[in-house]
Amino acid sequence: MTNTSVSIKDLSLNFGAVSVLRNLNLDIRDGEFLVLLGSSGCGKSTLLNCIAGLLEISEGQIFIKDRNVTWEEPKDRGIGMVFQSYALYPQMSVEKNLSFGLKVAKLPQADIDKRIARAAEILQIQPLLKRKPAELSGGQRQRVAIGRALVRDVDVFLFDEPLSNLDAKLRSELRVEIKRLHQSLKNTMIYVTHDQIEAMTLADRIAIMKNGVIQQLDSPDTIYNAPRNLFVAGFIGSPSMNFLRGEVAASDTGPIFVSDTVRFSLDGYRAGEALQPGRKAVLGVRPEHIAVNGETAELHEAVVDIEEPMGADNLLWLKYAGQTISVRVNGARRFAPGAKVRLGFDPSLASLFDAETELRI
Amino acid sequence: MSDRSSLVAASASRLQPGPAGRKPRRMLSPRNIMLYGTLLVAAIYYLIPLYVMVVTSLKGMPEVRLGNIFSPPLEITFEPWVKAWSQACTGLNCDGLSRGFWNSVLITIPSTLISIAVASVNGYALANWRFKGSEVFFTILIVGAFIPYQVMIYPIVIVLRELGIYGTLTGLIIVHTIFGMPILTLLFRNYFAGLPEELFKAARIDGAGFWAIYLRIMAPMSLPIFVVAMILQITGIWNDFLFGVVFTRPEYYPMTVQLNNIVNSVQGVKEYNVNMAATILTGAVPLIVYFVSGRLFVRGIAAGAVKG
Amino acid sequence: MDSRAARRPSRLLRNIPAKIASIPMILTALVIFLGGTVWTVVYSFTNSKLLPRLSFVGFDQYERLWAAPRWIVSIQNLAIYGLFSLIFSLGIGFLLAVLMDQKIRFENTFRTIFLYPFALSFIVTGLVWQWILNPEFGVQSVVRSLGWSTFTFDPLYTSSIVIYGVLIAALWQGTGLVMCLMLAGLRGIDEDIWKAARVDGIPAWKTYLFIIVPMMRGVFVTTLVIIASGIVKVYDLVVAQTSGGPGIASEVPAKYVYDYMFLAQNLGQGFAASTMMLITVAIIIVPWAYLEFGGGRKRV
Question: pTM score, two decimals?
Fold first, then answer.
């Protein structure tokens, strides 16, 4: 036996002539928390619906717990699902909501009661059991929705943007709870979101999707620090990574990055392949990896355009080399618009992409 | 005390001379006189026929012949109502409108229930369980709603005759179900399609099938639209004339047909007061439905009409 | 639904309950709406009398139809009735809706009053207005009794204007619906449009005419289609109010069809006349459906 929980092989989905998912492969380990991340229309929710069996796939196979469930009904796949709009049955009490699926499956009443009691205890919703969904707050509703997946006693939990309908404060609270739930239950969880913070905080691995294709599947740390291509680099991080176009060149001290107006040393950059001089490239540096008026060897002059104080840190939009770049500094450091500053950065934290293939070098 | 007065004085002193506070508004502005005047005249125009019906039906025949139709009755009599209900003649029968009333009840109740049952399941299938071709059939159905009934009447007569139910109440109920289908299916399809799709998905994950989802999730959530459909069907079927006259035998004639036969019969002296009483009686059921249902009626016709 | 096996069910067998539930719709759409229409059109080319017979006579029935004075009168009546009922019900309906939209008091009362005739059948409507327009007792006699002894308002007994008598009744019955649809349309317009117009200092009537009405194009078109398809079907109202009289002065096509099919035992004529009605409706509906749903899809 493998320790694979969900396995997707060569999955494609077409709606008529439109191809939504293309030849997609994905293996999710047992007990893993996988986040599908992407902007709307990238196919992440579609993929989740395919795994749930709510959408019929065009080609490929889906395995759950080593069982081919490609043509199974949703109820027979061993999954539970939590939806963005909670999808609680409005005319039923919380208890009935939780028990509906179990009653349909004709489980003995004692068994049903036991499972509901357990779910209610885990989620701390015992006092709500007799209430109708309309009498609950958003956070409580989502808890009940999670409970509905919980009582099914399944191996795989599917979350379809479960926190998107909540306000910012509740969202971060429930985020922590979901993480705690995962730590105590150790189920496989597949979680769809467009929120980077949710993805970064919850995931064991993140799959970033675009146009029905997974761009990168890696740990949050790798995705953030070593994005595999230009899209992932620009998608993750807010504000997004600063990009400079130019080419690789050789110098006495090693490879450098040059454009019409700038030259940077790439000393310390861990390239995956040889840095051929003359290769057209894009250099990416995250806002927080740029030092302002620091001690770095190479210093470049820039002018402060806009300052956005955010409390904990302070975001500067600078005019540099004919474009606007963003820099994150400590919130205590303030700069007046028009002020001249000197920038420096550490090549080991930067990313370099091929200008043609947009892949990481 | 001194505190308060000083507060008042302080706040008063901050105001500059000139407009302050709420802008004065006159109830009797020329605009309002025009507005309410026009609405009132229109309201009177719409109310006159109802008033005339009631007034005429409460007069005796001699008074009807003498007076004008707008004057209130000098002597109120309920005899025309009694006569209209139980004695007015259509052809050979002289047992009044009561027969037509009960026929209409026998037609309206099953037709309403069956058409709603059929159309709601249909709309649900179209909204949540689309299959290849379902939209094509639906399009034909909706376009068909605009075809004049006259075009389809005779083929239906033949079909019903072949089934041996031409002229019976069963036949008429089927006809009402058929012609209620486009509008009701549209109504239910749009309503069910407007419910969150995730509910349907959640129910499928819970293992519920076609009928379980309809009966236990969708229908209980949709009581308002069922009421709207009932209003639509009760008034529509009660008010029907053409199908009643084409598809039933005289002993099953609905109230509208019987009313028309009573009032427009050429034999005998015209008893206008009885005619008006009969007219009110026939209009009473849909009117009561209308007044009781209020906003839902408006919603029903808007829903029925807007996306026709 | 109960397939536990990992075998892909065939396309036809999937979704079985939905297909069973759709049988009534499919039968209605195919057999009655499509089949019935085709049947009637086909038989309009036969000389069916008492019973439908498939002996084709080409366009004979249509030639006879267009040679019949009664049909010509019916068509003329329909044209007059249709034109005026479109103009007036849209005009009055929109005007009333605008008045109702002025944040008035008693809005519900007014709405109830304007809409209640729509709950009544055409038979009831026809009979009430027959009584009100009765020359011996109705409006004419009341005005005369007030001293204007030559006053004449006798539409139901005057051939040349009888159709206007029917029109009055129809407008009374139907304008409330138009008002409601228009009001719903007005209420559907973004409140911010009004605020913007007010800040820009555009007078209310100009806002209605140049901003609101163009925005309500969809509502107008839909209402137009509803009124128009109702006009073609007009039948009960005429039967109740005038029985087509005096003489044949208020005949309408729908009545022509019924009379020839069920009273005159001349089915062929009835089929031909109903086919003409179908064509009339098609002329209204097809362009609308084309605009509304876009081309491409097949229509009946």
Answer: 0.85
